[in-house]
Amino acid sequence: MLTINQLGCDYPQHPLSFTLSVTAGERVVILGPSGAGKSTLLNLIAGFIPASQGEVWIADQNVTALAPAKRPLSILFQENNLFTHLTVKQNLALGLSPAMRLSAVQQEKLLALADRTGLLPLMDRLPAQLSGGQRQRVALTRCLLREQPLLLLDEPFSALDPALRQEMLVLTQALCRENHLTLMMVSHQLADARFLADRCIVIDQGEMAWSGTWQQLEKGDIEAARMLGVTPANDP
């Protein structure tokens, strides 16, 4: 689904260079210290930061030169970027049509997914009338309505309380499975990796320092685990 080859850009602290592959339907959580380059990696994949070297391939298509809007992906940040003057329904409609003029089929699709994500009672509200968890549900639903095969999440739930955060993780996992999405999520929360990830990637100083399952991280690689503040089971 996703392949990046020596992808990098100019970075104030240190050079960045990433090479990795993610298979279709895989869920990957990206971990690492602050300033390591985790968010920069997602922005390079999405095209918001121009690459100074390397390539990005998504679904067998070289998208390196494409504008962000032309790439077959959706991205959600901690700041959900909802339009404050539009209702929930209008914000969702933007996921299907920039003009918000929907066909009957699109209307049905919007309402079905809004029902699945618990948004039907909120459709006429403005973002300011929603809780933080509700706003993130709107933003996530809008991403899913775009029906892109790759979903990038950059610390989207970090501002939520623990109960809401868990609710959003459960919803994200379910929707990725149901829609056969490939997921890459940046997080500082090790619990996210335990719950969500098929694979963990640890980034440090602009490079991939480690890749494997959460169980391998917890029980195997002492250096990578210590980097994240985890005590490996085999650490003397």
UniProtKB/TrEMBL annotation:
<dbReference type="GO" id="GO:0005524">
    <property type="term" value="F:ATP binding"/>
</dbReference>
<dbReference type="InterPro" id="IPR003593">
    <property type="entry name" value="AAA+_ATPase"/>
</dbReference>
<dbReference type="InterPro" id="IPR027417">
    <property type="entry name" value="P-loop_NTPase"/>
</dbReference>
<keyword id="KW-0813">Transport</keyword>
<keyword id="KW-0067">ATP-binding</keyword>
<dbReference type="InterPro" id="IPR050093">
    <property type="entry name" value="ABC_SmlMolc_Importer"/>
</dbReference>
<protein>
    <submittedName>
        <fullName>Thiamine transport system ATP-binding protein</fullName>
    </submittedName>
</protein>
<keyword id="KW-0547">Nucleotide-binding</keyword>
<keyword id="KW-0997">Cell inner membrane</keyword>
<dbReference type="InterPro" id="IPR005968">
    <property type="entry name" value="Thiamine_ABC_ThiQ"/>
</dbReference>
<comment type="similarity">
    <text>Belongs to the ABC transporter superfamily. Drug exporter-2 (TC 3.A.1.117) family.</text>
</comment>
<feature type="domain" description="ABC transporter">
    <location>
        <begin position="2"/>
        <end position="230"/>
    </location>
</feature>
<dbReference type="GO" id="GO:0016887">
    <property type="term" value="F:ATP hydrolysis activity"/>
</dbReference>
<dbReference type="GO" id="GO:0042626">
    <property type="term" value="F:ATPase-coupled transmembrane transporter activity"/>
</dbReference>
<dbReference type="InterPro" id="IPR003439">
    <property type="entry name" value="ABC_transporter-like_ATP-bd"/>
</dbReference>
<dbReference type="GO" id="GO:0016020">
    <property type="term" value="C:membrane"/>
</dbReference>
<keyword id="KW-1278">Translocase</keyword>
<dbReference type="GO" id="GO:0071934">
    <property type="term" value="P:thiamine transmembrane transport"/>
</dbReference>
<keyword id="KW-0472">Membrane</keyword>
<keyword id="KW-1003">Cell membrane</keyword>
<dbReference type="Pfam" id="PF00005">
    <property type="entry name" value="ABC_tran"/>
</dbReference>
